[in-house]
Amino acid sequence: MEVTDGPMRVAALAGPYVTALLVAVVLTLVCERVARRFRLIAHPREDRWHRESVPLLGGLAIMLTVAVVGAGWGARLGRFAPLLVLSFAMGVVGLVDDVRTLRPQTKLAAQIVGAAVLIQFGALLPLTQFAIVNLLLTLFWMVAITNAFNLLDNMDGLAAGVAVLTAVFRLWLFLIDGDGDGAWMMAALVGAAGGFLIRNYPPAKIFMGDAGSLFLGFFLGGVSLVSSYAQTRGVIAVLVFPILLVLVPILDTSFVTVTRLLSGRSVAQGGRDHTSHRLMALGISERKALSLLLGVSTVSGVLAILSYQQGFRYSIILLALLIIWLALLGVHLSRAHVVTAQAGGEAAATFRFVNDFPYKRHVVTLGIDAMLIVVAYYASYLLRFEGTFEAERANFMRSVGPILGLQILALAVFGSYRGIWRYTSLSDLVRLCRAATAGVAASVLYLVFTTRFETFSRAVFVLDWALLILLLAGSRVAFRLLGDWLRPRSRTSRRALIYGAGDGGALTLRELLNNAGLARRPVGFLDDDRHKRGRRIYGLPILGGLDLAEEIFTAQQVEEVIVASQKIPPERLEQLSALCTARGVLVTRASLWIQ
């Protein structure tokens, strides 16, 4: 298909997209009724999240839609025809599994055979100079991505949503390369998955089943192999861009694999321990969890586009920051209590050692800080030299190692590793600033004594100092904010009003927010100081004084008042007690449970 300018390209894709969208909506509704008619229903299980019986066969609708659109525009299929046929065959294997349940070994064998046949049509990852290595890596890639999508299908709308986003960004890359046939194929897939997503968005009315997840996984994995750029770009383009486009399935599979191995459980065994399940176990809603994971997929897709167009010189900084943010998220997810399908067994000796290693937190902290130090130093060079960075690359490479060591040492000397990130305070940030200042100063002194600072730029280290403080402080604050957002909240929590908006009230609020076991949900402060009304402490409003207590009780549905100040006059406490007794509201002193 000829592609000319941008608007015409997009207009040319409207046909396959709209056709696929409409066909997918109709076929999804038909498959939903057929599934109910023949009792092809996914019933609730202990190792699955859904609690309602939901019909399957949604994957069949996706497969048939792509087949219908492919038949209608068969001349446009070109090199995608073998991939589409093999993906359809993989979907049929999944459909059989949905109906009769196949053994995992059977599905794995089918995936290997499908990948091997695809390789016979010339689809190969050209990563090395050795054909056998490239063949094995290609087989691994296809099987891994296919299974990653299969495992990702564990929450309403997740696998379909990620498939839509992956196809959209892949379409964008095809347009950049002027590959009209590839863009057309992706437009059809966006329509097919999008039409199904309408009925699969939470709460789902239909599931795609293994038919859909295996079809989508095999097809999206294979697109990376049949794309024309895969034969003309470098190793980074061939490998990194596809990984970024399917980052969420890869992360979910990797996270589940590692956590199951560490706990001594079978990787192949099902369970409610995926990233989506852990997010909901931490207290956020299903739709918010879905939005977060789709947001990660969107960010990684945009990063892939930027890297593809601008190169990795600049986008590598954003990639490093994304990796760090995902690491912080992973730390929080690892703390979530999840339901597993089987009791924890005995982990292998290596994984048992890792799981029992007492300094895991320190290793993770050091790793994140090391990456941030390198990112700050690298970004300083880019900001200072911009287009002439290549001329300064040698200076950067010979100095980055010593500077990394000196700045890590400064952080350790100033006690930056003694604190706990989720309790980061202003004093911790001040300590970080001092450590960063000392680390940069030590770096400058080192270069003065070893090179007389010849050929090095002073501006680089001014920028490095500012960026280092920003990144180190930002990582701690981001971790705390993420923890606040993901903190578990009891559904049976009492709505509590804190009486006293001073230091005691602030301490009480922090304890309520940090300790889910107290099962209180703070709704505001009560304080008799009129000058404090309308202000906020840690985001919680000061609603008024005792004179407005009855109105506040009604408006906020208060179940308990926590007295958090020792300075409240006895007569005020008696008045509060009378009001609360009349309305059936409990009165508690914070000192009884805050030590």
Describe this structure in words.
The chain has 595 residues and is α/β, with parallel strands linked by helices. 66% of the residues lie in helices and 6% in strands. The protein has 21 helices and 10 strands. The protein has helices at residues 6-37, 58-72, 81-100, 104-120, 131-152, 158-177, 180-200, 209-226, 235-245, 247-262, 275-281, 286-310, 312-334, 349-356, 360-385, 389-413, 426-451, 458-486, 503-514, 549-556, 570-583, and strands at 41-42, 54-55, 271-272, 339-340, 494-499, 520-526, 536-537, 540-544, 560-563, 586-589. Strands 7-8-6-5-9-10 form a 6-stranded mixed beta sheet, sandwiched between helices. Strands 1-2 form a two-stranded antiparallel sheet. α19 (503-514) links the parallel β5 and β6. The longest helix is centred in the first third of the chain and has 32 residues, at 6-37. The mean pLDDT is 85.
Q: What is the distance, rounded to the nearest whole angstrom, between the alpha carbons of the first and last residues?
A: 72 Å
Reading side by side through the largest sheet, how are the strands ordered? 7-8-6-5-9-10
Helix run count: 21
Helix content: 55-70%
- The low-pLDDT segments are none
Number of strands: 10
Q: How much β-strand is present in the residues? A: 5-15%
Most strands sheet: 6 strands, mixed
| Shape by Cα distribution | flat
What radius of gyration results from the CA coordinates? 28 Å
Mean pLDDT across every amino acid position: 85
Coarse structural class: alpha/beta
Entry summary:
With 595 residues, the chain is of the alpha/beta class. Helix content is 66%, strand content 6%. The mean pLDDT is 85.
